[in-house]
Amino acid sequence: MSKRKLFRGDKGLKFKYSVEGVNKILTDRYQTIESFLDTEFPKNNNLMSPTINTQIYDITWNSHFVTINDRVKTVSDLKEVLSGEYYCTNSDIRLTKTDIMRKSTHSIEDVRETVKDVLFEKIKKDSRVELDGDIIKGNSQRYQLFFTKGTKCACCGIEGKYFAKEKRIKDKSYHLNLYGIDDNGQEVLITKDHIIPKSKGGKDELENYQTMCIRCNERKGNKTE
Ligand SMILES: [Zn+2]
Predict the structure, then answer these.
(1) What spacing in Å lies between the alpha carbon of 147 and ligand 1's midpoint?
(2) What is the helix (H) or strand (E) element at residue 134, kind and residue range?
(3) Distance, CA 217 to ligand 1 centroid (Å)?
(4) Where are the alpha helices (DSSP H) in the chain?
(5) pTM here?
(6) What ranges do the domains of the chain cover?
(7) What is the pLDDT of residues 74-88, one digit of tens each?
(8) C-alpha of residue 213 to centroid of ligand 1, in Å
């Protein structure tokens, strides 16, 4: 997974912490995620430096708060998460590794074949199909979109190439996420976008959906909300 360097002028990765006995909140800052990962803690035996076990809070990326799961409590946790897979834009780091469990990947053709008879099934219990040992809901609006309008991002043209059977740790069952690969070899989630945003009265129906990669979707989302 490639990790994007920040552009000049970006404010980088920042987090707040406090040191025992010092009644002050301190800020630690890094121009790039790599420079944070390369840093040995504590820095230069500096007593005010965070250590690997220092509790951190208010983590920001280019001045935007980063949503991080509850397990990231210390410098060491943040290092672990950021050395895994994540996806970042100028304003956001989306951490996936600790949240999402991937079991297998499947070709678009295999998935199409698996869900084709239930793609538009209206009865919930009849929409379940088995894919490689797991039961998935075969009539998801995302699959309806991808199999009727295609897997290509309407905005940048990146194309969905395979499905991954994934779930968040708290989820009971698996679902399929569609991914493409960008020019840097980085995996990009392909999503279902509302052509007319819900906030502007757009409906939750196939006619109002288009295929869009998460990067374009977030860029669009930021403008219309
Ligand atoms: Zn795109």
Answers:
(1) 18
(2) strand 134-137
(3) 7
(4) 33-38, 75-82, 108-115, 141-149, 214-224
(5) 0.59
(6) 13-95, 100-224
(7) 999 888 877 766 655
(8) 4
